[in-house]
Fold this sequence. Notes:
The complex is a heterodimer of chains A (281) and B (266).
Chain A: E1 2-3, E2 37-41, H1 56-66, E3 73-77, H2 80-89, E4 94-97, H3 104-108, E5 110-125, E6 146-150, H4 156-160, E7 164-168, H5 170-178, E8 184-188, H6 189-199, E9 207-209, E10 215-224, H7 230-247, H8 249-258, H9 262-280
Parallel strand pairs in A: 2-3, 2-4, 6-7, 6-8
Antiparallel strand pairs in A: 1-9, 4-10, 5-8, 5-9, 5-10
Chain B: H1 7-25, E1 28-32, H2 48-60, E2 64-68, H3 71-76, E3 82-84, E4 95-104, E5 106-111, H4 115-119, E6 128-132, E7 147-151, H5 154-162, E8 168-172, H6 173-183, E9 191-195, E10 201-208, H7 214-230, H8 233-241, H9 251-261
Parallel strand pairs in B: 1-2, 6-7, 6-8
Antiparallel strand pairs in B: 3-10, 4-10, 5-8, 5-9
Amino acid sequence: MKTLGIKLVGLALVASASLMASGPRVTSALFTSAQNEIVAVETPPLYSSKNPNGGMAFEIVKAALDSEKETATLTTYPIQKMVNYYVTQEKVLAALGTNFKLSEDEKKSVISAPIAIFAERYLYYKPAHPKGISWSGKLSELKGLSYGAHNGEDASAYKKAEIKVLYGESRFLFKKLKTGKVDFIKEPVLSAETIIDANFAADKNEFGIMESAPQKSICKILFNLKNPQAEEISKKFIKGLSAILQNGKYQAIIEKYEGKTALSSQRVEEFKTLWKKELLK
Amino acid sequence: MKKHTGLLPAILLFCLTLGALRAEQQAVVLQVNESSPIWSQKLPLGGMGAEIVQAISKEMGMKTDIEYISLKRLIADTTNNDIGNPLFYMDNQEFAAIIPIAISYSSFFTYKNKVKNVLSDTSPIARRIGVLKGTNLNMTAFKRFGFFEESASHESLFKKLKAGRLDLVVELSLVGRETIKNFFPNDVESFDAMVAPNSSSPIAIMIDVNCPNANAIGLRYREGLERIVKNGVYQKILEKYYANAPIPSSWRSDLSKFKTIYSIDF
C-alpha cells in the first residue's frame, strides 16, 4: 500500500494562531459590506481565511475577478451547513465548495460555475486494517465497511452498496478514521496532507491510500442571487476565468499549490475541456 | 402490514426524557473565560451570560456550574463543555449541541476623535487598529484597512488607545464599554464608539459530543431558553446590562438566525 507523499506547498501558510475566545472575531467582513464576501468551509490549503491568499480555489476566483477589476473577500466557517445558510439565506456574494446539498428552491437561488477539478484519494488507517483495504474501484467490494462522508456529500452510492455512512467535516473525519469509527474516507489530496501534517504528524505514515486510481471532484462557485450584484459579477467571473485559463495564470496557481507535475497539468487540461462545455450551456 | 411510523420518534423522545431526568441529577459544567460584564467572577451574579444560563437552569430544574479557567486551558481542552462564540471552538472540537443564548456585537472605539472620522480616513495605511491577540482571523485583504496591532488584554488595548498609540480599537461592545468605565471612570466621555455593522455573533452553550446525555442536555437548555424568553425573565436580564444603552434592535432577529444555523446535530 502507498502512503501519502505529496509535498505540501500550502502548509507553511496555515497559521496556528491561539485564539482569544472572549474577544470579537475580527474578520474583513467587519470592514466591508457583504456584497463582495465569499464563504467556504475552512479547508486549507483549498479555501482558508488563515492563508494570506485565501487558498488555491479562492486564489483562482480572485484572479478571475481581478482581471475584470472586481474584488472579493473570503470568510470561512467550520461546517458546510453554515456555508449553505449564508449563500441561500443571506446576501453574501458567493460560496465555494464541492459538497452543496441544496433543495430545489435553493438551487434556483444560485448561479453555479466550476472552478477547478480536485484530485481526491480514498484513505484508511493502517493499524485498523493491517492488511490494507484493497479494491479495484467497485464500491460493492467495500460492503459492510463504514465510510466517512463530508457533510452535504451525496453518499447514496455507498448506502446502495451496503456501506455504513457517517457524516462529518474533513478534520473530524480523520479523527473518526483513527479511532475506528469509520473504515475509510475520501479527501482532496492537498487538504488531506494539510490535515495530517497539522494534526497527526506523529503517525503520518499510518494513513494509507487505497489501491485505486485517484478520484476527482469538481469545486464550484455558487453566486447568490439574493445579492443584487451577483448576476453581474458572475458574468464578469466567467469572462475572467476564461482569460486566466488562456493567459496561464490559472495553471500557475494550480502549480503553486500542487507543484508542476504531469498529473496537475493533465487536470488543468481536463478543466479547460469542462469549462468549454460550461460556456456552451 | 401497517408500519408503526410513530413508534420510533416516541421511543426517541422517551430515551431523551430519561436522559434529561438523569441530566437533572448532576451538575452540567460549562467552562468560560473571564470577560466582564458578560462573564465575570467579580460580578455578584456572574455577568449577563451567567445570569441567562442560571435563569435557564432554574427554569428547567437543572444545576449548571460555570467554571472560569485560563484562556490557554480553555482552548487546549477539546473535551469540555464551553460557552462563547462557537466559531472559536468548532475548528478543534466536535459538539453534540450548540445553543445560542445571547448575542455579542463588536464596536469600533476611538479616543478624542469620532469613529466616523477615523473610518473615513482616506489614508488607511496610516490607521493603527488594536485587536485582542488571536482575534484577527482573516489576514486576507486586511492591509487595506490599516495596520493591526495585537494586545493581550482588554485593558491594554484601551490604555494604548488613550495614549495615542492606536487610532481605533475593535472590541466587544459591552466589554469595551465596561473596560472604559472601570479603568478610565473620569474620562468616559472622551471615548467614542460605533457598533460595527456586520459584527453580530452568538454567545452559545456548547455541549461536547462525548458528554453523557449531551443531546438531552442540549434539548433542556433550548427549552429553558424558550421559556425564559416567553416569561420575560430574559428581557429583564438584557435590560439590566443595557441600562445605559438601548438593546440592539437586531438582537431578537440575530438570535433567531443563530438558533436556525446551530439547530443541527454536529
